[in-house]
Amino acid sequence: MYTLGERVRQRFSQIFKKEYVADKFLIQSTNSLRSRSSAEAFVKGAFQVNNTKNMTSINDGLLKAYRNCTFWKLLYKTDRKFRHEYSHLMHMKVMKELSQNISKRLGFFFSLESSDVWTMYLMCRYDRAFNQSVHYVSPWCGVFTIDQLKILEFKEDLYYYYKHGFGLPINLKLGCPLLRDLILKFNGAVNDTRQSVSTVYFTTHGMFERLLSRLGFFNDTQPLKSTNITDERRLWRTSRIPFGANLFAVLYRSTMDTSQGYRVVFYLNEEILPVDGCEEGFCLWDDIKNRFYNITNIETCNLNDCYIGSAVSISKQTTFYIYCMLFATIIFVFFNAT
């Protein structure tokens, strides 16, 4: 996160190379230790400071909204379609052969449990994340063939499609307050009523995927099913969100030609995201505002559905904090381009 902060400082030098002023920068995270540490490391890199005291704050209500959503917890545990698709995948012949073939490759005279295979897959990912040299060969990854890694990736894709993505409509509701926050801040910048010039959030991959879903990114034309295991064309992929994943939403205005108006660009992991109807990823602000106007209306963009049928009032909901293995950064930037 420190090096990400340095790169952001270089890319948006007009903003981040200025002295830090509290009312110009909003930097918030969840209350988990790793999230707070990520925020502090980013701040040190972006502003080249050693002391980050009072530069970051906690906002679990926005950045971890799903933890208090009773309705989401109920759907996630009981949704029949989710359970059917995931169970069907785990009982498919290709999954059984996966464990058998890996066991043979390792020289075992018995078949590994699917949980053992999954643990080795996770170790492969962690090992490669911490050892990114092109010359490094992970012993954990050496267990698998390329095709086997694709099967395990699909297993994870299917799981999170329902847990965090388009598979459960409540996920889009949970991602909406973050999108509304973005639209309101950009609208404030356009109308010169904003308070901060940059907003930086550090959240979990669960909220990150929900925001991407609410924005409409990587939405396949057909719902993801267990039978899509060999479909290489699918858009929904959890591999798009690695360790330290980041989403930049940047509002631009040319000071050389103000007639062009404002434009919005989305960057995923520092690369421009293509958006339908936008030229090379550069979208007219009015188009973005109109696209999400009805979605982010306060009458519909709220978490009221989370508490339907709950015996506990919203104000008395208990907040649960957990350590997450993946932290994601969401950055809103307002930028005048020359």
Portion in beta strands: 5-15%
Radius of gyration, in angstroms, nearest whole number: 22 Å
Major sheet description: 8 strands, mixed
Total domain count = 3
Coarse shape: globular
The DSSP helix count reads 12
Unreliable spans: 310-327
**Proportion in helices:** 40-55%
Topology as a string of helices (H) and strands (E): HHEHEHHHHHHHEHEEEEHE
Write the layout of secondary structure elements.
Layout: H1 2-11, H2 13-16, E1 25-29, H3 33-47, E2 57-58, H4 60-63, H5 70-78, H6 80-90, H7 93-105, H8 114-130, H9 146-163, H10 169-190, E3 198-204, H11 205-215, E4 246-254, E5 262-268, E6 271-272, E7 283-284, H12 285-292, E8 327-337
Structure description:
This is Multiple inositol polyphosphate phosphatase 1. It comes from Clastoptera arizonana (Arizona spittle bug). Belongs to the histidine acid phosphatase family. MINPP1 subfamily. The protein is α/β, with parallel strands linked by helices and 338 residues long. It folds into 3 domains: 1-67 and 170-295, Rossmann fold, CATH 3.40.50.1240; 70-164, no CATH class; 304-336. It has helices at 2-11, 13-16, 33-47, 60-63, 70-78, 80-90, 93-105, 114-130, 146-163, 169-190, 205-215, 285-292; strands at residues 25-29, 57-58, 198-204, 246-254, 262-268, 271-272, 283-284, 327-337. Strands 1, 2, 3, 4, 5, 6, 7 and 8 form an 8-stranded mixed sheet that branches. A hairpin with a 2-residue loop joins strand 5 (262-268) and strand 6 (271-272). The radius of gyration is 22 Å and the shape is globular. 32% of the residues are buried.
